[in-house]
Amino acid sequence: MMEKPVVEGGKPVRQQYLVFGSPEIKQAEIDEVVDSLKSGWLGTGPKVARFEKSFRDYIGCKHATAVNSCTAGMHLSLLVAGIKPGDEVITTPMTFSSTGNVILHCQAKPVFADCEKDTMNIDPKEIERKITPKTKAILPVHLTGRPCNMDEITRIAEEKNLVVIEDAAHAIEASYKGKKIGNISPLTAFSFYVTKNVVCGEGGMVTTNNAEWADSIEKYALHGLSRGAWKRYSDEGFKHYEVVFPGYKYNMMDLQASIGLHQLKRVEENLKKRERIWKKYDKAFEGLPLETPLPAEENTRHARHLYTVLLKLEELKKGRNFIQQALHEEKVGTGIHFISLHLHKIYREMFGFKEQDFPNAKFVSGRTISLPLSPKLTEQDVEDVIQAVTKVVGYYKK
Ligand SMILES: *Cc1c(COP(=O)(O)O)cnc(C)c1O
After folding, report:
1. Would the pTM of this model clear 0.90, i.e. be above it?
2. Rounded distance from Cα 340 to ligand 1 centre (Å)
3. Which of 217, 246, 265 marks a domain boundary?
4. CATH classification at residue 188
5. Which H or E run contains 335?
6. Position 227 pLDDT exceeds 80
7. Which 3 state secondary structure label does DSSP give 136?
8. Looking at the 3D structure of the chain, how many domains does it have?
């Protein structure tokens, strides 16, 4: 007899709720934050500088500028790359809202190129179809941590003289054909949001090999004050500054960098943990009516940010939202990455999109579920996720 899900009157797999994307915070982070608090230097200071250096060393790029989110990083990247009102920026609709929003913040037009159905990443052929004389940039997203087809994207950008800005919110550990993500395109933005592979609470980083852009990003992120103005109240004496640009308030605090410094030290160790969980899931879900993630492409490194399955709705009696709710009742939290941007109200209203305009993004939007993959998960947590998915998805198999 098949075990009943909670929604059918059965018993939950777990007693304690498993929160999706809960970060692993260790004593080193706690001590470093306390050290910052005691030092009295809470804002942008020496620890941000240290975190930037560690990040540069990890990526192998020339410049890394810390900001308070990946969203801020992408916004400033577009600005320093010269994106002006009326310009077009090609991106994927299968992404988090901020990837599209930052283009709107520049009063530019987000032009969506549909994703591939299997990798869920932007399809280079669709990018080519969407290029017009107004196109200025391409903003690919390495969804779930799987690198996009950067050979094709770079070729298109070179041919058409476009800037590439990568949304690498999911891809800190990723590399593509031997090259680390963050060291391929002119600008790359990373996220240290609470659910990401390296967390600061909130935070972001822009990497580039262009010194002038790195310098502008630092200024723009702190009101547009002239360089080094963050030191204006240090023991070196008051530093006079000039406002050189009507800037933003996007700077990272030392409190955030305190967390990130130690998180980054464990990033490779955590990747191994994620890989182990990934393999267990792959094996356990064979034969269920769902697609497990594609293997990583040859000669690339997947950052294993999200373990995302696509439900085979044709073989199921219930839809995705129902299945997600049923897992929730089993006390297993999951995520949806993402509902395609063209299906959101603001984009429908601004651009008049219809559901079928991006068939692959629509397909993924209706079937995707991301399962817990934090390095904090215990063996038992992983077993519980497997049991909950097997029970719920198995129960509703046609
Ligand atoms: C999380 C996320 C962002 C935004 O990162 P923040 O640091 O929260 O601004 C951007 N793009 C994608 C794909 C994300 O998942």
Report:
1. yes
2. 14
3. 265
4. 3.40.640.10
5. none
6. no
7. strand
8. 2
